[in-house]
Predict the structure.
Amino acid sequence: MQNFKPKAAVFVISILLTACGKDETDENQFTPASIAEQTQSDPEIICIEDVINNAPVPIQAEQQTVSAHYSTETETDTETGRQSGSQTQELYQYEVKTRADGSSYAVITGLCEDYAELFQPMWEITFPEQLGGAVVTEFAPDAFQNIPLGDYSYGRRLKFSPDIVSIGAHCFENCGLTSVTFEKQDTSGTDSSDKLTIDERAFADNPELWGIYFSDRTVTLEKEVFAGCTETGYLCYETFHDTPSEMADSLKTYAEQTGWNTAEIPDYYNSEPIIDYPDTPLILTPEVGSFFYGESAEDDNQFCTFEHSDDAPDYGFPEWHIPCGEFCAMAVREYEIIASSTLFSTDGKYTADNLYWSGRERAWAEGVEGSGIGESIRITSSCGYNDDHTAGSLIFLEGDIEPDIYDGYMRYTQICIVNGYAKNEKTWTENGRVKRLLMCVEDRPYAYLELEDTINPQYFTLPFDAIKAADSVEIHFEFTIEEVYAGTKYDDTCLTGLVIDFMGRHGH
């Protein structure tokens, strides 16, 4: 049996970022958010062990976030596992600097040597928002370079506060990371968000790093920020009611230059499907597959083995068959099929319902005189998990497509069609088969499906991210017969299966 058990990585996302950073001609000059800053002539470099005498506070293994406070006045958020307290964390070295206007900010420069061993691999790593009484806004170059912040059995997610404006060169190079999130800023009452600069090779050489999320910010990415990371990485940016962030084009350009991808993350819940229609209907050709032994296998030794055989009963998508597959934990699953006509039978042998994964003993047959040109199948689909649709919630899943993006939206990605009446070769040959289907989505032409004259399952791949609907939102597909292959005995045109796969959350 194939293993489709996913590993999930959950992120909080929002909008993006553009740049500002240190003036390379003067390391003491800094300009975040258009405010000139100037360091103290003798910056304060602090390791907490040097200022306290009490014993180190160990990090407990069950904690999900790295937050070892020496203050006794700490509270834990039970939903996030994040701790907060009135004092600074004892793990970090940092500098407190002063701006020209007299305000202070903190720069994390690394881990205290004596506490490096306490920095254990965690599922999610957050950093203190304040150190030394100043807001943390920067991470110094090389601060965590070659430090194993995670191991590959954990998620190794980094999460940065909205106050961060600079990630120094090589800062998180070779740290065993999988994802990075910049939290959303509260820009209410302001004209713009603080800008962020990510310097050269800041996240390089993390071979499992495949996702970075920019919130309501603008960002400047220097060269080779993600060199040596996964080839299927994503730069994610926020959209609001179909309006991309100002950074969308910039990130797309950077992604193209580095071989990465981009993904739009909606900060809203749309009650209507979102369809990217082509200028003219696409012409799609199939990849021919095979029948397999899934849930319909009568022999227990063949149940869900997914062994291919001409005599096997199942078709479609293996994830639909396994006990904890696509539909596990799904609260809403609608897949309604109606036909413009149906060949009469007393036992429902030719009804449209047979197209939904009913095996090969039954099929749909159109019920008009002639070959059925112009007859159609209409499918209404919706999938839902009843999740909280809080803006900025995102899950990446490692499944059949890596990564699967789940942001509350289901992407419809593939169609499997079993042409003709595929009970056996004789029945299949005697009845008509479909040669060409017009596919409409939400009653607008989308593609022509050019079917081969074969009894085997045929798979049509749809453009990624082009057809999607939010959790529990209905989407409508219609397939109209335009051309047929004639049967040797009957005029009736048949289809054995027509199922549409989606990409989104998986089961356990």
The first strand starts at residue 7 and ends at 12. Residues 436 and 482 are 5 Å apart (CA to CA).
